[in-house]
Amino acid sequence: MELYQKIYVEPSFLESPHGEIACEECHKGDPKDSNWQTAHDNVVKDPTFLSAGQVCGDCHSEIVESATKSLHYTLKPMFDTVLARSDKKNPTVQKVLKKSMEKHCSTCHSSCGQCHVSRPDYVKGGFLAKHHFKKTPPMDTTCASCHGGRVYGEFTGANEDFPADLHYEDEEMSCMDCHKAIEFHADGTNVKNRYALPERPDCSQCHEDILSKNSKNKAHASHGQKLACQVCHAQAVKNCFSCHVGTDKKGLPYFKCDQTKTDFKIGLNPYKTLERPYEYTVLRHAPIVKDTFGFYAAHALTDFDTVPTWKPDTPHNIQRETKQNKTCNNCHNNPKLFLQEKDLIENEKMANENVIVPLNRIPKRIKE
User: Fold this and answer.
1) Residue 317 lies in a domain
2) Is 173 contained in some domain?
3) Full residue range of the structural domain in which residue 203 is found
4) Tens digits of per-residue pLDDT, 124-161?
5) Quick check: is 309 in a domain?
6) DSSP state of 163
7) Beta bridge partner(s), residue 263
8) 188-224: buried (b, 16+ CB within 10 Å) or exposed (e) per residue?
9) What is the pTM of this model?
């Protein structure tokens, strides 16, 4: 057997709790077959995808029950948002859209194994530590695999001209310091987006005194709950426009984004809740246009204006001092910071009516 045909399992794994479980109990195959090629005919590479309950559920039943309904596992908000923009009276279009999203969007799905044993399929897999199960996944080989294009680069300072998030740079924090397992595994069945999760990170968890109404910081005390923290403390983010998906001549799925732009835009908060009552929030452009799925179904997104294309965002590139908070009037009376109609691409004005900031709602210049 050639080296590339072997599975990288070392003796120490065989002595671990997971290593004591026979391979075929999770991965199937026929251990009684002396021919290794036919013995592996029915082997399942990632038995935790679609059937996590059968392999992980015996020992981790409570976690699996919710984790298999989590946003990372199902990508529900992404599917819901696209379908909300679609022709709901046309079942054929709905079916085609679901299939095309499964082909393209689901490649970023994370199963139990693709966080705790290997890198996600999106980056072609690969063990994290010789088949050892990692209770806390390493962020550079798991989180970065799917979030590397925007969030991870902003967090670690990979984008030119913009320093890393101070939590990463100064405190050496990782994704998991804020995003706990209870959030990753949370049942997302009735959740519209990540901000509606019952357990999620919040600045006040570590900065309670600073964010209180009685804060000694005048800026915090005066702005209160009018602004999301990131409005003052985040930097520019990468926005993607004109994204299209399709299938090439070999049947391989592809996507291409015609335009990206690093920019910082403040907009009105379209999803006010008790936890997020802010009037203003940071926005990021979602990678979708009216003909994103045009390769599969022409004019599929007939209700495109139902959902904003500039969506609330919580950038992971926090600094104490930023261009907009260096002085009060760097933000006040500065229309360039606020989303305006001129910032929109073609045919998305109606979709963003609830997030565009009218000139009369841009804070007035004040005496420093």
Assistant:
1) yes
2) yes
3) 64-361
4) 888 999 899 999 999 999 999 989 888 999 999 998 88
5) yes
6) P
7) 237
8) beebebbebbeebbebeeeeeeebeeebeeeebeebe
9) 0.89
